[in-house]
């Protein structure tokens, strides 16, 4: 099970994401934004950070990186893709996921442990969780407010494509407390908080983020 | 030489926290005229000569694909005199 982790200029969380993949039992493979080669990976993670300095819009420039052309093609054929934080922004800019992530409603950059509820466990990245399972993982971003039009929101809700919601007060103004969504097929998932920082109680608030990285193994075994 | 200006604004229904922050800073400085403020982006694209319709169409395309995100933003392209 080879899971590619893409590094763009300005990516921060690629090492933690790679470590989380290995911790979960997979084999992480480093991918570089300028490479037109996915190195035969079975899945791809777009990690968090500030790719291209968040210039123009978060994720707007990364979307056109050479490696993304291959990721978009592979995702459309069903390859599992997880975008975390900046990775989620890249997936929205790439139109692999609907909506957009905008400035937090109170303008603050948030960095804290956040409780979320898993609301869909049928995607490639959430099958290790129980529906309604509550996990605490770090949330750290300045532009994490999920926005989309009413029609898109209604479709996401009716199709069960909201995969996680914030618990408690809305941290950033996201519509319907959305912390993560999937595409219709369930292979592409975007998530604002950071499961890769919560795989080991020694270094994170919990080990509850590990489920995202073990889910992908289940998806491959099936 | 000519300048093509592309202005990008958040759609009216999208929350603009930066605009709101500016709107609430104005009265603190004694500027009481603003009912609300929206903040946007302005791109100035310099080209060699007066743009042809084909060039303007290309800029429109670039505005749609790269300079704006149609999910949350609108854009206007014009030539600055």
Automatic annotation (TrEMBL), chain A:
Keyword line: ATP-binding, Cytoplasm, Glutamine amidotransferase, Hydrolase, Ligase, Nucleotide-binding, Purine biosynthesis
Keyword Plastid: no
Species of provenance: freshwater metagenome
The name this protein goes by in its record: Unannotated protein
Pfam families referenced in this protein's UniProt entry, alphabetically: GATase_5
Gene3D superfamilies named in the record: 3.40.50.880
InterPro entries recorded: Class_I_gatase-like (IPR029062), PRibForGlyAmidine_synth_PurQ (IPR010075)
BP GO terms, sorted: 'de novo' IMP biosynthetic process
NCBIfam families on file: FGAM_synth_I (TIGR01737), PRK03619.1 (NF002957)
GO terms assigned for molecular function: ATP binding; hydrolase activity; phosphoribosylformylglycinamidine synthase activity
Cytoplasm is among the record's keywords: yes
UniProtKB/TrEMBL annotation, chain B:
Protein name per Swiss-Prot or TrEMBL: Unannotated protein
InterPro entries registered for this protein in UniProt: PurS, PurS-like_sf
PANTHER family: PHOSPHORIBOSYLFORMYLGLYCINAMIDINE SYNTHASE SUBUNIT PURS (PTHR34696:SF1)
Pfam families according to UniProt: PurS
DNA-binding keyword on record: no
HAMAP family: PurS
GO biological process assignments: purine nucleotide biosynthetic process
Lineage, uppermost ranks: unclassified sequences, metagenomes, ecological metagenomes
Gene3D superfamilies: Phosphoribosylformylglycinamidine synthase subunit PurS
Keyword Cytoplasm part of the UniProt annotation: yes
GO MF annotations in UniProt: ATP binding; ligase activity
Keyword terms, alphabetized: ATP-binding, Cytoplasm, Ligase, Nucleotide-binding, Purine biosynthesis
